[in-house]
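User: Fold this, then the next.

Assistant: Folding the first:
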Amino acid sequence: MTVSGQPTWRHSVFRPCIDLHGGLVKQIVGGTLSDTQPEGLRTNFVANESAGKFAELYKKYNLRGGHVIKLGGGNDEAAREALKAWPDALHIGGGINEENAVKWIEDGAEKVIVTSYLFPSAKFSLQRLQSLCNLVGKERLVVDVSCRSRGDKWIVAMNKWQDLTDMEVNKESLDLLSQYCSEFLIHAADVEGLCQGIDQDLVQRLGEWVTIPTTYAGGAKDISDLELVNKLSGGKVDLTYGSSLDIFGGIKVRFMDLVEYNNAVASEQC
């Protein structure tokens, strides 16, 4: 045990999500989001239930720290419905900036998630990150370093993962960012929504690099992926499931199995 009484080891767990597009809860193949070619969008699932119903489900099983991502415009009402259903428990992302970050926290977000605002003209702005950190506080800020692979590197992608920035995801960049935020969220945009497996190399690297709580999303297709992420990252990285999950129309992974998995981990850590 550490001095604070917290265990010195950690185990990866399931983190839930609510992806919003056009005001509806959807699961989308991440690499097909495009402002210039909207007809190319591939949608795996559109929910009949509202965002608030999914938030209530996560609250029922105490799945804190899930991310609510607004993919484009027309999603604010649905996002606020989710936050109202479980205040101070969910993280909100999509269009977050200095003008609206405080309002989203006032509306019930535990934390705000930022990406594109930090990259004006696709170039990283440390000043913007520092200003946002000063505005909401480090503990309220999550930096989304969702990325695309280019050769043996991963490059941060912004604007619904359409545009590559000037930042490589590596130890140096994550160390810098972690000075101003309390968590990372990382979508592997190349495999997001495909249900063909996680980016194992990226997860392993994240385990070597990150020093703050980190959630990975992209390609998870079996409950065994949780143990795989735990092994690859040394328990430093949590995992989000999307299109493979039964509550999102999938057939590969049962939501209740993930709940039971998290409960088992929590019992071990007591």
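Now the next one, as you asked:
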Amino acid sequence: MSNIANGDAQPPAIFDALPYYDDELEKYPVLKQKVEKELAREGKPPQSLHPKVPPAPTLFADHPLLQAELERVSNHQPLPPLDTARYQLPGPVKPEDEEEWLEALKNARAQLEHQKLRQTNLALLQQYGPNAWRIHNYLNEASAKNVEKALEDLKNLTVDVNRERKNFQTRLGTQLTSLETRWTELISSILQIEMANVALEVEIDRLNKREVELAAAL
């Protein structure tokens, strides 16, 4: 009542097809051929999306590195090779050049610090990694179970919707068939009445003519 009072009344639904009930295409192959020919003549549907469909969001608009990586993966491009020169310990090309020795010494110290950091990370991983991995697996399993449950619920909902739709259409189809049968019976009755009226009119005309002839004979 509130929707009607507010002017939000929805128009009645019109059902022009009952796919769960109508079986004319299976009964009459000629109709199916005509439908297929008509569909082939109409051509393919437009590839463009409906105007009300929002545009696709731009991923990682504020992160150029992530956007470039996403584009690389989308284009099926391989990863760029790792720069292994930074992990090498080349000696000076000119042994007499003090600057080259200083650069080599700086590189060696950086490599030493890198190896120390790797040892620290490996020790931390050995100490805390197993538990962190178990927790990660537990969270993944929980997420997978939630997704599977959501999928199962969606499938059940789809089955319920299709079952309700089939029952609704079957009920409407039965009602329409009954009304069509009743309509056919009424049309047949009307035709019979009209034929009887025509016969009565002919009989009345004959009797009137007979009456006139008898009156003239007297």
